[in-house]
Design brief:
35% of the residues lie in helices and 20% in strands. The protein contains 14 helices and 21 strands. The strands form five sheets. A seven-stranded mixed sheet has the order 14-15-16-13-12-17-18, with helices on both faces. With 527 residues, the protein is an alpha/beta fold. The longest helix is centred in the first third of the chain and has 23 residues. The model has no long low-confidence stretch (mean pLDDT 97).
């Protein structure tokens, strides 16, 4: 049952005096349930509970936290088809996508459980005392990662499961030992409430402290702002627009005690088409990218919004085939009427710029909130001199930039803003002749792809989902994969501390049998 209330620790609460409804973009009507906005009292209560819970939760063993995460996954599964129905009614996304994204979310939770179970993730390091060391004795120093404190996680509009209530940010923070307060996304608040019920049930079943998780609703930005400013909050996770992420980043930086905001934001994910690849297989590449551009109605942060090549017969063939293929794709529904309106506005703004030529646009009538895909092209000089064309158009839109030579191609890449991904399409080892292009792209992106498409983000240890600003606010970290836990910890050292008072990860006898760096050697031996 959907109550439309907020979860404050392990209790439902509805102290706010304002309510809103979520929207069904497929039916173009409001959903039936009303969602209660969180009050100032509820914000403070959630932060107080999280701060108190941190004292106990940060000390809970990796084995118990892993049990908690696995139980969350089990309880989400137990919600069954009803959760999938609510997900689709609030997002317009099909049942198959709901099943796939739920599976990814469960996989993330279980992956973090496996990651923290044995304790290796804390990066324990020990340098033993050397009293006879000259010219001065060396003290005993032991270092490991410790949790930051309560984390606020903002749900993402385009991933109601995987980047929202129990998604990657929440899983990473809980795995690190940080209580979480979710600011639920207003577009899928009922989905968020159902998932929250699973998290709370799991917390109670596994004996986690009250306040380890809360879920607050809001149709606007005020609740999120209050959470980021709250002195008991110690970090923020966000997936969304550059405007939203930067606003939170600035808000957190202006606190009396600034805190980190790990925001994954906008990206146009440049695709570089090398000449021999275009000469040999322009049509096949174009067909692949017509599908990638329109996948999920273009509502992925890794959507290929920019395609760059050097003028040639191969590029002409690519452009012609892409234009023909893109209009063969049946349009699909966007996540919300507001997102659909923004897509149309941003698309029109891009097309109003001087020098833009439309290659192909789907022009048949579509249902409300369905996106009409479009590809356009522009000369390299024009693109270089117009920063507006460098901005993301969130939806099934892509711009092909036609460069006059390889020098201009390199200049365009160098002048791009930071991106999540960059792709090189190459044939016959030709990429080895374009090392400057590869280096330029590497300096602008977080992940470089060879002969593939950027859409799709594998959840694994080696994934880097982030990049130079404005792709993310800190390019040293990933928002996907178990290494994303590093966002919510800090290194901490003990000097000359009695062995019996040290955490298990740093004790001489190594009771957890983890791998540690001891006097410069990586080993699982005792000290």
């Amino acid at each position: 049952m959907i109550t439309g209330k907020n979860y404050i620790g392990n209790q439902l609460s509805a102290k706010g005096n304002k309510a809103f409804k979520t929207f069904n973009p497929l039916l173009n009507i409001d959903n039936q349930w009303e969602i209660t906005e969180a009050s100032k009292e509820e914000i403070n209560q959630a932060a107080d509970l999280a701060s108190e819970a941190f004292r106990a939760y940060s000390k809970i063993s990796g084995i118990r936290k892993a049990e908690f995460l696995r139980t969350i996954a089990h309880e989400i599964e137990a919600l069954g088809d009803k959760l999938l129905e609510v997900y689709s009614s609030e997002s317009g996304l099909p049942n198959g996508r709901a099943i796939g994204e739920r599976g990814r979310t469960l996989g993330q939770l279980r992956a973090f459980a496996n990651h923290i179970e044995n304790g290796n993730w804390v990066d324990a390091s020990i340098d033993t005392a050397q009293p006879e060391h000259k010219p001065m004795p060396k003290v005993d120093l032991r270092k490991m990662n410790v949790a930051l404190g309560p984390v606020v996680v903002f749900g993402a509009s385009n991933f109601p499961f995987a980047f929202s209530t129990a998604g990657g940010d929440t899983a990473a923070a809980l795995a690190a030992g940080c209580p979480v307060i979710v600011k639920s996304h207003p577009m899928h608040a009922a989905t968020g409430e159902m998932v929250s019920s699973a998290v709370i049930k799991a917390a109670n079943k596994t004996g986690m402290p009250n306040g380890v998780f809360s879920n607050l609703n809001s149709s606007g930005i005020e609740v999120g702002q209050e959470l980021v400013k709250h002195p008991k909050v110690k970090a923020v996770g966000f997936t969304g627009s550059i405007r939203g992420g930067r606003a939170l980043y600035d808000l957190a930086a202006n606190r009396d005690e600034p805190i980190p905001v790990f925001a994954e934001m906008g990206s146009i994910n440049p695709v570089i088409l090398l000449p021999i690849a275009l000469k040999n297989r322009a049509e096949a590449i174009a067909k692949t990218y017509a599908s990638s551009i329109t996948l999920g109605t273009g509502q992925f942060c890794t959507n290929p919004g920019l395609i760059i090549g050097i003028k040639s017969e191969g590029l002409t063939n690519f452009v012609d085939t892409l234009a023909a293929q893109i209009i063969e794709v049946e349009p699909s529904c966007m996540l919300h009427s507001n997102i659909s309106d923004a897509y149309n506005t941003n698309k029109a703004n891009a097309l109003s710029q001087s020098g833009i030529e439309v290659l192909a646009s789907y022009n048949n009538d579509v249902k409300p909130n369905y996106a009409k895909q479009l590809v356009a092209t522009v000369e390299g000089d024009t693109f270089l001199n117009n920063p507006i064309l460098h901005h993301e158009v969130f939806g099934p839109f892509s711009l092909v930039v036609q460069c006059k030579n390889v020098e201009q191609l390199e200049s365009i890449i160098t002048n791009l803003e930071g991106q999540l991904t960059g792709t090189i399409i190459s044939d016959e080892n030709e990429v080895t002749s374009y090392y400057k292009i590869v280096e330029a792209l590497q300096n602008r992106v977080g992940r470089i792809i060879f002969n593939g498409v950027p859409t799709g983000v594998e959840v694994c240890t080696s994934m880097l989902h982030g990049g130079p600003y404005p792709a993310s606010t800190d390019s040293r970290f990933t928002a996907v994969g178990v290494d994303s836990i590093k966002r919510f910890v800090r290194p901490f050292s003990y000097q000359d501390w009695p062995n019996y008072l040290l955490p298990n990860e740093l004790k001489n006898e190594n009771p957890l049998e983890i791998t540690r760096m001891i006097n410069g050697t990586l080993t699982s031996e005792k000290v």
